[in-house]
């Protein structure tokens, strides 16, 4: 079976080379191997940018243009805009019913971002629910894997826990539920209490010994049939039929892409080269990059490892150029501007076809619209299948009174 991959990006600004060398390149590989759903997370952008939405409107189309320009292919992957698929909202609402507040409050990004983005009021329901909406995005398509950066791992942990919690609540068929019911009755009040204490120890405190104790305890209860015993144990362990798949994290190499100052390339550090940066700006930015501070004068030798330019050579230059840099730097045979020149050329060469394709797409708004409409249609179909199972498992079909 082909794997299902889901990933989204928030439209809050232009993409840069860090996105390209990190997450986008991994998408390009994945779209050839797996069933991919890539979407523009405009609702997620709203969680922080709800006061002024004009920026989101623009960024949505810029993002689509840039995806297409780097080679994300609507014939290979399903590309869509999150808000075009209302099923994301319905699943988020339903999952919200079983999401403990504490799970959301303890996500590190929740407090961090509130601190960092002080100019915005992020004490909102929507912002608290960010990981919940993200969970709906992922579980809706039955994703096996989710390519994200390290900053998203805590969110994925919630997605996994919520899938498990959902399955343990609703993943049992009526027969199994009836066996549990009968089993509890057969146990009687006192023994049922002991049983639920053991269940709490296992499910809430993660105490694995509680399972062994429960096996022994249930084995001693005379009035239980084998079926009841089995279902009570399954209940204790939170085992259920898998209705929602637990997704795995697929860490992208985003963190390896250095910015202009040697730190990770990120908009919040102001050290980026945008994907569609004008060539003059690329040149200017690289020319003014800091270098090894030991090279005060042209005649002072340097150490490439102490230089952010070197870090970029690792990405953009082959072994020959790299050994030219190392030799020239450590002996002061080349100046820093000499050293930067092949880098400038490599970045420009990488960007030229991307820029050209971006211009192509930017001039074709109707085709862009067709792409996301087609994508949303395919996404809705897949999402609706999951939701039908979810509604049924939660008892929300209400077709007729059948109990
Ligand atoms: N939170 C992700 C980010 O900021 C964006 C996102 C939203 C996402 N929904 C998702 C990523 C679902 C992967 C899967 O990068
Ligand atoms: Fe950095 Fe290159 Fe200058 Fe050495 S020569 S300090 S690697 S820019």
Report what the structure shows.
By secondary structure, this protein is mainly alpha-helical. It folds into 3 domains: 4-168 and 243-256 and 365-393, HUPs (Rossmann fold); 174-237; 276-362, Tyrosyl-Transfer RNA Synthetase (Orthogonal Bundle). It has 17 helices and 5 strands. The strands form 2 sheets. A 3-stranded parallel sheet has the order 1-2-3. A two-stranded parallel ribbon has the order 4-5. Helix 1 links the parallel strand 1 and strand 2 (35-40). Helix 4 (87-96) packs parallel to helix 17, helix 10 (174-203) packs across helix 11 (209-220) and helix 14 packs across helix 16. The longest helix is centred in the middle third of the chain and has 30 residues, at 174-203. The two termini are 38 Å apart. The protein binds tryptophan and iron/sulfur cluster (SF4).
């Amino acid at each position: 079976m082909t794997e299902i991959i889901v990933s989204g990006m928030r439209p809050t600004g232009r993409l840069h080379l860090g996105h390209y060398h990190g997450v986008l390149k991994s998408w390009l590989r994945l779209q050839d191997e797996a069933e991919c759903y890539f979407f523009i997370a405009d609702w997620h952008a709203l969680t922080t940018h709800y006061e002024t939405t004009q920026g989101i409107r623009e960024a949505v189309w810029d993002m689509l243009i840039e995806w297409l320009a780097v080679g994300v292919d609507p014939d290979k992957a399903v590309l869509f805009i999150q808000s075009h698929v209302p099923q994301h909202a319905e699943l988020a609402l339903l999952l919200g019913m079983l999401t403990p507040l504490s799970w959301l409050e303890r996500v590190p990004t929740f407090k961090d971002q509130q601190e960092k983005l002080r100019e915005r009021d992020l004490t909102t329901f929507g912002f608290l629910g960010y990981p919940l909406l993200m969970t709906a995005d992922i579980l809706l398509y039955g994703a096996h894997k989710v390519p994200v950066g390290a900053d998203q791992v805590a969110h994925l942990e919630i997605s996994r826990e919520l899938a498990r919690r959902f399955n343990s609540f609703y993943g049992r068929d009526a027969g199994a539920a009836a066996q549990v019911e009968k089993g509890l009755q057969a146990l009687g009040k006192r023994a049922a209490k002991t049983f639920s204490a053991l269940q709490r120890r296992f499910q809430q405190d993660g105490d694995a010994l509680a399972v062994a104790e429960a096996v022994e305890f249930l084995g001693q209860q005379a009035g239980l049939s084998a079926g009841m015993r089995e279902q009570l144990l399954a209940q204790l362990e939170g085992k259920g039929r898998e209705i929602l798949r637990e997704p795995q994290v697929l860490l992208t190499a985003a963190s390896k892409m250095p910015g202009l100052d040697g730190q990770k390339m990120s908009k919040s550090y102001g050290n980026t080269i945008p994907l569609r940066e004008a060539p003059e700006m690329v040149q200017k930015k690289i020319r003014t990059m800091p270098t090894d501070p030991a090279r005060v004068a042209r005649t002072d030798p340097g150490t490439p490892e102490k230089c952010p330019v070197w870090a970029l050579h690792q990405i953009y230059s082959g072994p020959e150029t790299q050994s030219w840099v190392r030799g020239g730097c450590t002996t002061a045979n080349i100046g820093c501007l000499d050293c930067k020149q092949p880098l400038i050329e490599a970045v420009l060469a990488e960007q030229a076809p991307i820029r050209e394709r971006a211009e192509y797409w930017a001039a074709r708004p109707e085709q862009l619209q067709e792409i996301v409409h087609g994508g949303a249609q395919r996404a809705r179909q897949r999402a609706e299948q999951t939701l039908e199972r979810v509604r049924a498992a939660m008892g929300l079909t209400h077709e007729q009174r059948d109990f």
